[in-house]
Amino acid sequence: MKWKQLLISIIIFIGLILLGSQPIFAETEIPILMYYHLVLEGSDSITLWNNSVLSVSHFEEQMHYLAQNGYKTIFMSELKNYLAEQKERQDKVVVISFDDGYESNYIYAYPILKEFGLKANIAIVVRPTQLRDSEEALTEYHPARHSHLTFDEAREMLQSGLIEFGSHTYDSHDKFKRDIWGSTSNTSAKTNRGETEEEYKKRILDDLLKSRQVMLTELGVNPTYFAYPYGKCNQTISDLVAYSGFDIAVTIKKGYVDQGSLFLQLPRLNISQNLSLTDFAHLIEKTSIGS
Questions:
Q1: Chain centroid to CA 20: how far?
Q2: 95: Cβ–Cβ under 8 A, 6 or more apart, which residues?
Q3: Which of 64, 96, 144, 253 is the most exposed place for a label (fewest CB within 10 A)?
Q4: C-alpha span between 78 and 119 (Å, rounded)
Q5: Mean of the pLDDT values across residues 36-54?
Q6: How do the domains of the chain map onto residue ranges?
């Protein structure tokens, strides 16, 4: 009987070793990384604007980490099916997202993503991109202008197969904030525009549909995901986002996506300029910072 007990002990020991070799990252929990604007190291913009403005060197360091450590990047449109079809997967997955559609995404982020073969998602405010197309081209890019992408730049990125575009409204980025600031738990947002409920809903719906129509015309694709301005939403807006044809919508609430997530109110992880590479690794691997 002793040899049987020894055999069982060996099997248990091997099982523990194999279990310990699995990724710390839970197989059904995926982080959506949230970025905005990139600037060169030493630029005044990195300290004068906000903590979410990241240096190019930090972004490159993080993308290099993902590539070197075997992370797979996927589009927002792939996220739902990826989770639904996930069966005993061992791969480590992240979603890279940018909000607003700043030109720095093209100037700085895009070459780095190409270098490492990583996919990313960019939710654009559509109207500023339209306006860029009507302007004379700037002779020199300057980060302080916070200029938005042109559709020519967006088309180039789209054709690479590494970028997926979503909507961040047509021209209502700040209007959405005023609509729901402090009212995110209400089933119907209160406005200060003297609108009826139906007028309010129509204004939002018209904006959402126009963002999709313009992106279809200019890029040849219907966006499948929406980024709430300032990450704010309520049930009324979420319902209108779904009615408009979006399958996925992202907030700025901190958390990870799993099979039980509300796909019209997905959480993300904000990547700030003061996040060290070690802390970045802990964050995406869901381990305690400093462990």
A1: 30
A2: 30, 31, 32, 33, 73, 74, 75, 76, 79, 121, 257
A3: 144
A4: 11
A5: 76
A6: 28-285
- Alpha-carbon span 70 to 66, nearest angstrom: 6
With vertex at residue 179, the alpha carbon angle to CA 177 and CA 184, rounded to the nearest 5 degrees, is: 80
Per the listing, tokens 């979006």 go with 246
Residues in contact with 285: Cβ distance below 8 Å, sequence separation at least 6, in sequence order? 23, 24, 25
pLDDT digits (tens, 9 = 90+) for 13-23: 444 444 443 33
What is the pLDDT, as a whole number, of residue 231? 84
| Tokens describing residue 127 | 């109207």
**235-243 helix and 197-219 helix, angle to the nearest 10 degrees:** 40
- Tens digit of each residue's pLDDT (9 = 90 or more) over 194-251: 778 898 899 999 999 999 999 999 999 999 999 999 888 888 899 999 999 999 999 9
One CATH from 3.40.50.720, 1.20.1250.20, 3.90.78.10, 3.20.20.370 for 28-285: 3.20.20.370
171-190: burial string, b at 16+ Cβ within 10 Å, e else:
ebbebbeebbeeebeeeebe
